Amino acid sequence: MGDPLVTFDLRRGRIFIGSGEELAKLFKLAPEMGTDAGKLAASSGQAAVSSEGSTAVANSNGYRTSVRDFARRFAHRKLYERIAILLHYAHQIEGRSTVTSRDLSDWFGLCGFKTPVRMDKALDNLMRQRHMVERTGPGQWVLTAAGQNVALDLLESAAADGGQ
């Protein structure tokens, strides 16, 4: 099996402890494993730590992209579209299953978006009118399939316009 290796993935905020062979298998199986790092490493008997609290993601150049840079392209969009993009970012990039209305308000301010006076009321309206979000607990929200479709459509149009 060989001597154990300790590998640091600074871009994704992970640590891997194991043999070189297991490390090679790990990267072949899941090069973009995100929050599944713990599950995958646990099944192979190794320890891995992933950082879910980070608000940045590595882009293709290896540089970090913040939530502000990610959402900047959508500043001119409607409120429901900006919410869908931020919830998509939280789920797909940060690996968060739910987001609080307070987190969304903070992200709106960080991204330079005009923040609704009551984010929880805006999310309630979005849930009733467009069925894009769902309440999972007090102040906890998740993007529905309809909301995911809106976010993916926005990302596709941004990519087609050369906004990537």
Question: Could you give a short description of this structure?
Answer:
Helix content is 46%, strand content 18%. With 164 residues, it is α+β, with helices and mostly antiparallel strands.
Describe the structure.
This protein has a 3-stranded antiparallel sheet with strand order 1-2-3. It has a 3-stranded antiparallel sheet with strand order 6-8-7. The chain is α+β, with helices and mostly antiparallel strands. The longest helix has 16 residues, at about 145-160. It folds into 2 domains: about 5-50, no CATH class; about 60-160, Winged helix-like DNA-binding domain superfamily/Winged helix DNA-binding domain (Arc Repressor Mutant, subunit A), CATH 1.10.10. β7 (about 135) and β8 form a beta hairpin. About 45% of the residues lie in helices and about 20% in strands. α4 (about 80-95) crosses α7 (about 145-160). The protein is built from 7 helices and 8 strands. Residues about 30-60 have low confidence and may be disordered.
Helix content: 40-55%
Name the assembly state: single chain
Structural class: alpha+beta
Average of the residue pLDDT scores: 76
Q: What is the annotated CATH architecture of the largest domain?
A: Orthogonal Bundle
- Can you say what the CATH homologous superfamily of the largest domain is? Winged helix-like DNA-binding domain superfamily/Winged helix DNA-binding domain
User: What is the strand tally?
Assistant: 8
Instruction: Fill in the CATH topology of the largest domain.
Output: Arc Repressor Mutant, subunit A
Number of alpha- plus pi-helical segments: 7
Measured distance between first and last alpha carbons? 43 Å
Strand order of the largest sheet: 1-2-3
Write the element-wise H/E pattern from the N-terminal end onward: EEHHEEEHHEHHEEH
Choose one word for the global shape: elongated
Biggest sheet character: 3 strands, antiparallel
Unreliable stretches, pLDDT < 50, 5 or more residues? 31-58
CATH top level assignment of the largest domain: Mainly Alpha
- What share of residues are in beta strands? 15-25%
Overall radius of gyration: 18 Å
Give the tally of structural domains: 2
